[in-house]
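Reminder to self: tokens first, then the designed residues, so the page reads top to bottom the way the pipeline ran.
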């Protein structure tokens, strides 16, 4: 039986590249996106081993509905990739709660709701791994420049929740907390240090090589540990 992965935010950026690379490697891929009708690049990859599902991760009802629809599908790997930067221009002096709360819902809360909803699927699979894309910008120890209140706090909250999850699910399920590098995507912009192909290739390597000691570790794209 082919190894199976479920990926959120699979229609563009690093998520789309994960789909391309896992299917090339012989995996079965559940590729989730919030607007399948507009996911043209994803549908170019669709086939017997790439199944496209509608999923807005900000909608808890959609998460539980998809988990129910896939109840008989063991998953080797869940990749929480979907994320947003948050409202542009949200600087101190102009902060507002609504965009911040929306960002927390997508970046911080949804990955945990996904883990909760798909726990049984992951326990039924062989790989037993939840990999979540966080950001070095969520590191308090690494923050030398300030600003980016919304994105930074959403990823710091995500990291705190994932660390708890790594303890709660040990030793059965590995919880990987991965910084993908500064990547040339819509979010990372054109000045990023690596492209999505390189980022997904290196992240797949980190996921494949992860051992129990890597669960709950804030891991940089080069495999080193990022301070919380
Ligand atoms: N690029 C970087 O340099 C960088 C650095 C550190 C961390 N990261 C993290 O890496 C992950 C992927 O980033 P990326 O660079 O590939 O970003 P991207 O190109 O902006 O793509 C973001 C993806 O997330 C999806 N998404 C956003 N909100 C969603 C929602 N509510 N429900 C479902 N999907 C949603 C988007 O779907 P739509 O097309 O529907 O909007 C899109 O597929 C994110 O978690 C990001 O925080 C990126």
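Designed residues (228 positions):
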């Amino acid at each position: 039986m082919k190894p199976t992965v479920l990926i959120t935010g699979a229609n563009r950026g690093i998520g789309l590249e994960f789909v391309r690379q896992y299917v090339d490697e012989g995996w079965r891929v559940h590729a989730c996106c919030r607007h399948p009708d507009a996911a043209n690049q994803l549908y170019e990859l669709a086939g017997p081993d790439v199944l496209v599902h509608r999923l807005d991760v900000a909608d808890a009802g959609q998460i539980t509905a998809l988990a129910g629809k896939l109840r008989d599908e063991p998953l080797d790997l869940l990749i929480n990739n979907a994320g947003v930067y948050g409202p542009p221009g949200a600087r101190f002096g102009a902060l507002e709660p609504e965009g911040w709360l929306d960002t927390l819902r997508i970046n911080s809360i949804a990955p945990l709701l996904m883990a909760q909803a798909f726990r049984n699927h992951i326990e039924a699979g062989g790989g037993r791994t939840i990999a979540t894309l966080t950001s070095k910008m969520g590191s308090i120890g690494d923050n030398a420049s300030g600003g980016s209140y919304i994105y930074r706090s959403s990823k710091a909250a995500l990291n705190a929740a994932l660390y708890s999850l790594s303890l709660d699910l040990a030793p059965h399920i590995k919880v990987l907390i991965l910084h993908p590098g500064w990547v040339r995507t819509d979010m990372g912009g054109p000045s990023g240090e690596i492209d999505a192909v390189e980022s997904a290739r290196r992240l797949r390597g980190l996921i494949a090589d992860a051992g129990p000691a890597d669960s709950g570790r804030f891991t940089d794209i080069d495999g080193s540990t990022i301070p919380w």
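The mean pLDDT is 97.
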